[in-house]
Amino acid sequence: MTGSAAIPRNVRFTKWKTQIMIAQLSLLILSLGILTSAAFGQDTDIPENATAKRFGSGWDCNLGYRKAGAACAAIKIPVNAYPTNKSYGTGWECSRGFLRSGSECGAVIVPENAYLNDRGDGWKCVRGHKIIANECDLVTVPENAFLSDSRSGPGWDCFETHRMVGDACELIVVPQNAYFDRGTYLTNWKCIRGFQPENSACVAIAVPANGYLSESSYQSGWKCERGYSASNSLCVAIRLPNNSHLDSSGNDWKCDPQYIKRDGACVIQS
Question: Is the pTM of this model over 0.70?
């Protein structure tokens, strides 16, 4: 065979693959060089008392400093305060136990029998004391009462069987045929079924014939059966006029369709 010898196929493939790898490596080195140059260039633009942002470009002022144009100016922080690194407001907060007063932090004066609140900018009275004129006075608990956790009121509450009358706790007198109920306004008791309150007692409800006890013990305390209507203290039978029927309550009547009520009768609509 004449001429140059043919290059085997596997050799040509290996040579082509090597060239690609060399090109990729060169591109990686170039990219690293560009990034390194950019990083060094960025460092030269960061002002004093600032740090490059962790992500993206730019920089942020260090704690205790705030942006002022292209620089970071120191925040004037008063005694007993700390920097917040916030871009708004004063840029500082008073330490626990101190309260802002203008541009300074004054100590919170905690009176006797009190403690700093959770925020540390005020105080609360310990249990058994209440605020009176910026002091914590001892709560005087009367007989048949206990300390309450409410910050309003006298600082105490009566036992369940007593009610507050002035600065004392008065026993709630439950009459015969009644039971204790703290939620009932004024009396704190309710009458049992079949009785209703009258003055300070529970009197029996007089249910007329053709009537029954209602769920409410107020007003009459009873209702009439279906087909009867209340008249004073009686249940009287309802007399249905022609072309009428009992209504949904069963204690009154209404006219059938196409009729209207007039003078106790049902007349055809004209």
Answer: no
